[in-house]
Design a protein that fits this description.
Layout (H helix, E strand, L loop, with lengths): L2 H5 L6 H9 L7 H22 L2 H5 L6 E4 L5 E6 L5 E6 L12 E2 L4 E6 L15 E6 L5 E3 L1
Length: 144
Amino acid sequence: MSTENKSQAVVIPPSVKGLVDIDPWLEPHVEELAYRRKLADDWIVKLNDTEGGILKFADSYKTLGLHVQKDNSITYKEYAPNAVHATLFGDFNNWQHDTHPMKKDDFGFFHIVVPPNADGSPAIPHNSRVKIFLTLPDGQILES
């Protein structure tokens, strides 16, 4: 670095000033830090606007996937925004891929509630194998 550059004051964006005050060795990287901070802030705004906040988004594991309810029904929720159709199948329905279609909401989540068996036991017992068929807009079917 030339001596004339050393004498120029570096403008530190307010979004990262506190960080650079703590660790001056970060000063040469303020532009990148400010860029990354803006990306993070943009995501926080997006999560607040669309998901009810970052904490609610972080709790999505409580609703995504398979969950046994108190009445032994099974809820299943999957995020597949590009799919146009989804079905749940596996051991519990003799691998028939058309008996348990899932409903898609406006945010790209597919969900289904599988009621308990007549005897009250879960329709999908523990250690069952399950899969989903996802149909894409072009008609391609993915099995996962």
